[in-house]
Each structure stands twice: as C-alpha cells, then as structure tokens.
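Take a look at this chain, tokens included, and explain the fold to me:
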Amino acid sequence: MKKYFTTLNLENDKFVGMLHDPDTNAVVYKTKSYTSQSQVTTEINQHLTNLKTSQSNNPQTIINTTSYHPVPVARGGRCCGR
C-alpha cells in the first residue's frame, strides 16, 4: 500500500485534514470541518482503512519480465587462457 502523508489546517476556527499523495503532493482526500483534531484523525484513519480494504479486494497482477540470454562461449580454445 502506498504511504500517504497528512496535513491539518485551521479553517474558520475548525480543523480540516488533508491526505496527500507522496509522489505528486496532490490532495487525495479532504475531511469535513471538526472542532477537535482527534475527529479529523479518526476520519482520515477510517478513509485509509476503507482504501486499504478496497485495494486488497482488487489484487494487482505482477508480470515476470525476466528473459534468458545465452552467453557466447569460445569454441576450440583452451579454458582460462591456458
């Protein structure tokens, strides 16, 4: 699961939390306005729990891209430069 980061802002004397994508710094989720920081934290944690659950229901397929390349071998010569 991707690791997000959060910010907590004060808007109109109420706390608002935002969840950010670490790669783009874009806001992925914004909470409602609350009077306490713990309510914001609870909503963000609930969102992350729901996000984790939805991602585990849709597993990603990993494709193996390894390919075999034979190494050329000199014929008729002696081994190890002898």
User: Anything to note?
Assistant: Residues 51 and 57 are 10 Å apart (CA to CA). The radius of gyration is 26 Å. The chain is about 25% helix and 20% strand.
